[in-house]
Amino acid sequence: MSKKLLAAAIAAALAPAAVMAEASNVTIYGRVDYGFMSRGGDNNGATQRGRDGRLNDFEDGILGTNRFGFKGSEDLGNGLKAIYEFEFGFSGDSGTSFGSTTNRHSWVGLTGAFGTALGGRVDGARYSFVGKYDPFKNQTVANAGSLFGVTSGLGQADRADNAVVYISPEVAPGLKFLAAYTTSLLTETGSSALAAAGNVNTDIETGDTPLYALAAMYDNGPISLLLDYENLKIKNSAASGSDLEFDLWVFGASYDFGVVKLSAYYESTEGDDSASKLASNGDGWLIGLSAPVTSNITLKASYVQANDDRADNRDCSKWGLGGEYAFSKRTTAYATYAKINNDSAAVCSISKNATGNSGLPTGTAGAPTSAGYGDSGFNIGLAHTF
């Protein structure tokens, strides 16, 4: 079959789908990212769990998690639109979905002069905000969020289940407000109680993780500012049967000078009582820069400090250097190096994204994993978006 006939056959096969997509205003988008990552250490200590050697492996989703999704809107008249987005994550180097879930986020909502309101599974507020001011966007071996997740004791919730979100219109040039609430951040409401004690004498809220967030966001020209407060509870979790409760404060700022963009981020997580402080009591900050050297080349650097005040000698820090080469607006090559310095009792380790953590996932038999390993590492790779 000639190339012209083949092209015509493909166009004919796809025409009905294209017409349907246009009629319902659907956009299909995605990202494919693949590269090489090497991690290790020089002391075979806590970050390596006593194992020897470097972990060298091909990895997907280093500069950004592999995904494909559908989004769109419907004009309802009078400036009101229905909006939706449904996004899947997938593994580019094996036959399984990325991580432990099939959908990264999925929500439906309304937008208009009143602002935007939506509900479903949405991107986590704290996770998204550190990614906004981290020059490495919560990705690569240099990401900041994985350190904050370890020292805070609360991890990094990259998605919020069971959530409703409201984002105001601009109340002044560049200024918007956000309010969000979830009945249970990481699980379905009541699911932990149903799995406990054979459902005998267990309060239905046990294990639920309600959270609310309030944020002010200012983005105007080269200036970006953020102030975010979040309150998280773990229901009926303390030994006394009472709730654990935590206050989270986030501040971010950046200024784009053109030749370089400077950014800073600070967060504090603290329990409200003595039992809660045993679970989380710390803070962290980062400073970063991103410099477009040419129209194709961007250099990045960051320094991250993460402090865990629950015990002595549990602080850690990381510095990272990286570069990206844009072949086009959609195809980018990248390389990054990072080095962690741990206090004697700290366990921060190298992972490819902010949801990575130290140690081993439940159920593994002591093998190194991509979740976190070593105190130094580098990665190279190629990413394409569509």
- Strand ordering within the main sheet: 1-3-4-5-6-7-8-9-10-11-12-13-14-15-16-17
Principal-axes shape call: globular
Main sheet properties:
16 strands, antiparallel, barrel
- Tally of helical segments: 5
Low-confidence stretches: 1-23, 357-370
Order of helices and strands: HEEEEEEHHEEHEEEEHEEEEE
Describe the overall structure:
The chain is globular. It has a 16-stranded antiparallel barrel. The chain contains five helices and 17 strands. The protein has 386 residues and is mainly beta. It has helices at 3-23, 125-133, 145-152, 191-195, 274-279; strands at 26-40, 55-60, 67-77, 80-89, 103-112, 115-123, 159-167, 175-182, 211-220, 223-234, 244-256, 261-271, 281-292, 297-308, 316-326, 331-342, 376-385. It has one domain (28-385): Porin. Strand 15 and strand 16 (331-342) form a beta hairpin. The longest helix is centred in the N-terminal third of the chain and has 21 residues, at 3-23. The chain starts with a helix and ends with a strand.
Summarize the structure.
With 386 residues, this protein is mainly β. The chain has a single domain (28-385), classed as Porin, CATH 2.40.160.10. The protein contains 5 helices and 17 strands.
